[in-house]
Design goal:
Elements (H helix, E strand, L loop, with lengths): L2 H14 L5 H12 L7 H5 L7 H15 L4 H5 L2 E3 L2 E3 L13 H14 L6 H6 L18 E6 L5 H12 L6 E8 L2 H13 L7 E4 L2 H4 L13 E6 L6 H4 L4 H4 L15 H20 L8 E7 L5 H11 L4 E6 L5 E7 L1
Parallel strand pairs: 3-4, 3-6, 4-5, 6-7
Antiparallel strand pairs: 1-2, 7-9, 8-9
């Protein structure tokens, strides 16, 4: 069987199973089976290239998995996010393009707080957000502590650190934490961190939200530090989970998707915990937690934004809140400065 025949057979089989991206999926899976680190143009140039029996068997196995709606990212154990490659399997969510907005927002915060750093990539994309957060460029830049909660594959925190390193601005980061309740997810985060030589930069925390915001983490945070908390927590309502597409419901980890009856169980708990930290800071400004400012960047369902805004306003009377829309014009990210 040659490349042309393999793609034709795969396309027909995938179409029969109502796979919407049959052509593209067949091409990606064939390149993986052939172990070709090339783009799909190679397939069109080499249509008569013959697959040996082992490659043909492997490709057919890939197609069989895809026919069952298993996501391509899990079949090839790879997903691109923010221009970087990440290892993924069924223990972590597949990174989505809209989640890249969290990275954009963090980089913009760091730019505005650190004498106008130059991050050209997100400047091109940020056309639908409010004005930059307040603070004059002349102010002495503070160091930052980054905490990524529900880190999964680590795509958010690793992309942020990669961008900072690329721009030679990683020195402004004092501490970095990546948290997930899943031990398997933490293992995958470590794999991806090692790939980009960040395994010694990041402190990995396996545990729930309370552990992610444990006071020990803030013991080194001082009056001049600023804390950035990112979180892509489960936000799917219980009723909506039942109607998810099979490629999501049957393969992606339910614990990373289900957010309770209204989809806000984890998000609301996170806000409560941060509120408690701030209450202790306000009452005593004790050495256990005393920082200059906190930024909270969350991803959620567009229909949840008003409710989350109300929760934030109730917990933090001085919160500066903005909503960021995704490329489809839907409200996707909420950013709060405390």
């Amino acid at each position: 069987m040659n490349v042309k025949q393999a793609l034709k057979n795969a396309f027909i089989g995938l179409k029969q199973k109502n796979i919407p991206s049959a052509n593209l999926d067949a091409e990606v899976l064939l390149l993986k089976a052939l172990n070709k680190n090339k783009d799909k143009s190679w397939l069109y140039i080499n249509t008569n290239y013959e697959l040996n029996k082992n490659k043909e068997k492997l490709f057919n196995n890939f197609i069989s998995q895809r026919k069952k709606h298993k996501p391509v990212a899990y079949i090839i154990n790879r997903k691109e996010f923010y221009g970087y490659d990440f290892y993924v399997d069924e223990n972590v969510l597949i990174p989505r393009p809209e989640t890249e907005l969290i990275v954009d927002e963090v980089l913009e915060i760091l730019e505005n707080k650190s004498n106008k750093l130059s991050f050209t990539r997100f400047k091109r994309r940020r056309t639908n957000v409010c004005s930059p957060l307040f603070e004059t460029p002349s102010e002495k830049p503070a160091s930052f502590t980054l905490i990524d909660i529900g880190t999964g594959s680590g795509c958010i925190i690793i992309s942020i650190l990669n961008e900072l390193t690329k721009n030679k601005k990683d020195k402004i980061i004092k501490s970095v934490f990546a948290n997930d309740i899943s031990k398997e997810a933490i293992k995958i985060t470590k794999i991806n961190a090692k790939k980009y030589n960040l395994e010694k930069k990041i402190k990995f925390i396996n545990g729930d939200l309370e552990k992610a915001l444990d006071k020990k983490i803030f013991s080194t945070v001082n009056n001049f530090d600023q804390v950035i908390i990112t979180a892509n927590l489960p936000y799917i309502k219980s009723s909506d989970y039942k109607t998810l597409q099979p490629n999501v419901k049957n393969y992606e980890p339910a614990t990373a998707l289900k957010g309770g009856e209204y989809g806000l169980d984890h998000i609301e708990k996170l806000i409560d915990l941060i509120s408690e930290l701030l209450r202790r800071r306000t009452n005593a400004c004790s050495p256990s937690f005393c920082c200059k400012k906190i930024f909270i960047i969350l991803e959620a369902n567009p229909g949840q934004m008003n409710k989350i805004t109300a929760i934030l306003n109730k917990k933090f009377t001085n919160a500066n809140i903005k909503i960021i829309k995704d490329l489809n014009g839907k409200k996707r990210i909420i950013s709060a400065t405390i």
